[in-house]
Amino acid sequence: MIPALLLAHGAGGTVRANFSPLIPQLSRKRRVHAIDFPGSGTTPRATAPLELDDLADQLVAAADGEERFAVVGFSMGCAVAVRAASRHPERVTALVLTAGFAHIDDETGARLREWRRLLAGDRTTLARYLMSVALGEPFHRRMTAEQAEGFLELIALTVPPGSPDQVDLVLRTDLRAELPSLTVPTLVIGAKHDRLISPGTTRALADLVPGSRWAELDSGHAPAVEAPAEWARLIEEFLDSLGPGR
Q: Can you give the residue ranges of the AB hydrolase-1 domain (predicted)?
């Protein structure tokens, strides 16, 4: 029996925003489950600071009765996926970590703190900043003026209310002591043109996971927009390569 698949979205994102182009393909072989974290989608915003343990347990609870499952994490969702594997090792069969981090370096931290600051201000200014760091430069350059304007409007209208809490969690997350103990098969996927999470930061995450595999997307920090088919292919090929039961 092929294990199910859980999807863990990124900070300031939702399941729909971060994964919707992939779900039809990934669902062909596996049952796919996901949850919007507090403050995203229709999930109410938390009344206290977010904790990684809580998000990991919420994600696993979304498995809806599945005994075992692989977890695909994106950005902040990578940290949630890792913690889910640490807390529920008997249930997590594999990890796919895309554009993630073990901890935030100074360069990335400066960008995240600017994002956090702009969340309190004008939505158009925030949207322009987010587009500048989320989209890879080659993809951004190919957009027409009309496409860029439409993307800006979409960002401004869909900022999750829980974004400040989620960005705060990213800034204080540190998995460096935890990652070397992972025993689950893991694929780490970097984003070649990532302007939010430094590509070297994702590579450092891979280096800390024993036996992890590495792949790279020709995209920025928005693979669901820039390279959805290739991203889905990498996920499926990795999971298929693990054989039955994985």
A: 3-227
